[in-house]
Amino acid sequence: MMRLVAYEYKKIIMKKGLLVLILVFSLINILNIIKVYNENAFFLTDMKNTEDLYWQLYSRFSGEITEDKITQLLDIYTPLKKEIADRTASTRTDHPNTMTGNVYMDTTFINRMYVNPMQYFSTYKSKSNTIALESSKNMEFYLEKNNQYDYLKSRTITKRFMHRDIQHFEYLEMYEYYIQYDISVFLILLLGLYVTARVFVIEKESEMDAIIVTTVKGGRKTYWAKIIATLSFVVAISIYFFVLDFISFEILFQHLGNGFMPVYSLKRFMYTPLRMSLFDYSLLAMATKIIGVIFATTLFMGVSCRFKNGLLPFVLNLVLAGSLIVVANRYIGSNIIVLKAFNPFMLLFNRGLYMKIEFVNVLGIPVLIYVASIAVTFAMTVFLLALIGRGYPINQFAFKGGKK
Amino acid sequence: MEIKIENMSKKYKKTVALSDVTVDFDSGIYGILGANGAGKTTFINILVGILKGDSGEIYVDGTNVRKLGDKYLEHIGYMPQYPIFYKAFSVIEFLRYMCVIKGISKELGEQRIHELLEIVNLAGSKHKKIKELSGGMRQRVGIVQAMLNNPSILILDEPTAGLDPQERIRFRNLITKFSEQRTILLATHIVSDIEFIANRVLILKKGELIKNDTPTNLRNEIQGKVWSIELDEDASIDAYYQYKISNMQRENDTVKLRVISKNKSLDEGINVVPNLEDVFLYHCGEEIL
Fold it and tell me: Side-chain half-sphere of A371: how many Cα atoms within 13 Å?
């Protein structure tokens, strides 16, 4: 089988054109990440010239959150807040008794970069405990009312939100943008489209389909070799692009080593059902995207296997992928659960599935939306593979007793 | 190896592509003649398992091929019409790939590739890309791939289509070379491909097997029905529409016609010895004219 897969690689993937495309797409991707950095990074936009100051203070306030650090921070922030309260403070930009040259700027800087995040981190424990506590009360209520579905839902919420805590203050700007970055997924899909357009067409164009079908390994084994080669390629290329994303963001945002912070350290993940570190979440998001890429590639293959040339299915797949991506993006933060859970393309932009705890009712059992979405995508992929396999030419005599 | 085909039939919607064909094959070269659409490719496609027949059975040495399963495919070498192959592969890469999908071990595969490339005189071109090969060279690669598994049954569908006369002669010689201890089925509508190399000739017409005999017997069957006649230009045109003409040859101001007719229809006609082309025209003429 491995030799068959290697030859499928040679037929479909080992092409100079594809290599050039990967290189060009890598460059486009890096340039896009640089653009994200230039347009959003604190120290390049709103907080220009405050970078040195930030890192100066960072050595004092980063690390484990203590009462002492909170007091010190408030000691800096409270007088500033008072000073600008009536908006009569000096607007000089070279004020000698300020950190940034301007008292308003000092206040905004300290508030945005330290006070706000510190407040969120230090109060998260009590907020999540409140959610867990309320949910456990709901559990009792639904148990009394014999409402099994809502009881199970509340039980999951209680479990997921209990004992949450953010114990450290760390600089997390990179993750804010990294988790929202989607360009690489589009590039991977384009590469997938390019490759899948050729997978089955190559035999039809070269008239090899007739020869292959008359050989011992020409039926199911060649089919699986094609599937393994194509899917392993898109998985490998996805990993490459996701690692490239991560490294590029890390380098640009100088953010090494803060991945141990819990994923709910990011405000937009305040209600996430996940209990893992940001780094682990990054890996989970990558894996989820890869499942989505596998589905998309299988779908592309399903369309292209019916055609005798590569161009028309390429265009059709492009339109199909575009439509499903638009739907996925439109409903990424929506409450319309069905559109999130049953659109496999949602896995490509999966933060919408992980940001808040949501359930899908599966035969009276509340299933977390991301679990349902992954399961649905997996089932659809298997179904598509079976469907494509059924249409793949098999020799009439390949099985004892005739074609099955 | 004996191959027996019993009552093979195939319909495409309302069109009968193959009708109740029963035939036995032993070692030797079998030419399958028929006009375009006569059912040659359908017959071959069913034989190699590309198509499923509507009815009929195939037996190899008395065993139904359905019982043989994959084992049957090990006996087959097949070359389809107009093979293009993978243009980006070199000859040797392509043949190695064919060894893999035919389940031939690496060592044996290398040995077979080099032997066969020597036989077909392509050893010097083994590193050439398929796209760089001429039509004739590509056909030779085609027969090498079909021969890699040393098949007992070699099936060639229109193998000389598109080849120049020199390449066709070369290809015919190769087929003869490979025919020892092997059944070769060669489907063609080019009669000269099989005239002198086939042990038996099968003629298919509208899906029916109308003849299955040696070339000599087939020629003898129409003895006395082939005529040669010399006419002027205008008369030759009239004759063209009146008779089955197997050949026209211009000589100075006259045209020499080879006419197939049960009766001596033209007074000046001279009876000539039939060839296989005459046989083909005699049986399939309506389809040609």
Answer: 12
Q: Determine whether A279 is exposed, middle or buried from the number of CB atoms within 10 Å of its CB (0-12, 13-18, 19+).
A: middle
Per the listing, tokens 């044996």 go with B108
Q: Which residue has the higher pLDDT, A371 or A1?
A: A371
Whole-number mean pLDDT of chain B? 83
**What ipTM is given for this predicted complex?**
0.78
| Both tokens assigned to A133 | 């506590």
- CB-based contact B48 A208, cutoff 8 Å: no
Q: Are strands B76-79 and B153-157 parallel, antiparallel or unpaired?
A: parallel
Nearest to B49 by CA among A288, A398, A190, A226: A398
Cα-trace Rg, chain B:
21
Do the Cβ atoms of A214 and B73 come within 8 Å? yes
Query: Which among A202, A222, A397 has CB closest to B101?
Result: A222
- For chain B positions 121-160, those within 8 Å of chain A (CB to CB) are 145
Q: Under an 8 A CB cutoff, do B69 and A399 touch? A: yes
Residue A29: band (very low, low, confident or very high) from pLDDT cuts 50, 70, 90: very high
Q: Does B43 touch chain A (CB under 8 A)?
A: no
Residue A221: pLDDT band by 50, 70, 90 thresholds? confident
* CA–CA separation, A196 and B120 (whole Å): 36
B161 and chain A: CB distance < 8 Å anywhere?
no
Question: CA A134, CA A130: separation in Å to the nearest integer?
Answer: 6
How many CB pairs below 8 Å do chains A and B form together?
Answer: 99
Calculated CA dihedral for residues A191, A192, A196, A197, nearest 10 degrees: -50
Instruction: Kindly state the tokens that stand for B23.
Output: 């035939």
CB pair distance less than 8 Å for A208 and B84? yes
Cα–Cα distance for residue pair B52/A397, rounded to 1 Å: 9
Nearest CA among A222, A242, A113 for reference residue A169: A113
Whole-number Å distance between alpha carbons of B79 and A202? 18
Closest CA to A300 of A316, A322, A324: A316
Q: B244-251 and B254-260 as β-strands: parallel, antiparallel, unpaired? A: antiparallel
User: How many CA atoms are closer than 13 Å to the CA of B80, on its beta-carbon side?
Assistant: 21
Asked if A394 and B65 count as a contact pair (C-beta separation under 8 A), the reply is no
| pLDDT one-digit tens code per residue, A289-333 | 999 999 999 998 888 888 887 788 888 888 888 887 787 777 766
Q: Which of A89-103, A333-347, A380-394, B141-155 has the lowest mean pLDDT?
A: A89-103
Q: Mutation test of the interface with chain B: which of A204, A215, A226, A400, choosing the one with the most B Cβ atoms within 10 A?
A: A215
Q: Strands, DSSP E only, in chain B?
A: 3-12, 15-25, 28-33, 55-60, 63-64, 76-79, 153-157, 183-188, 200-205, 208-213, 226-232, 244-251, 254-260, 270-271
What would the pLDDT profile of A106-144 be if each residue is shown by its tens digit? 888 888 888 999 989 989 999 999 999 999 999 999 989
Residue carrying the six token digits 């899917």: A231
Distance CA B152, CA A263 (A): 66
Q: Which two tokens stand for residue B220?
A: 């003898």
**What would the pLDDT profile of B19-61 be if each residue is shown by its tens digit?**
888 888 888 889 898 888 888 888 988 888 888 888 888 888 8
Q: Which of residues 57-76 of B touch A (CB under 8 A)?
A: 65-70, 72-74, 76
DSSP letter at B104? -
Tokens (6 digits) for A307? 């055609």
| Interface touch B100/A4, C-beta < 8 Å | yes
Task: Determine the pLDDT at residue A231.
Answer: 94
C-alpha distances out from residue B45 to A354, B4, B50, B79, B227, Å: 54, 16, 5, 11, 38
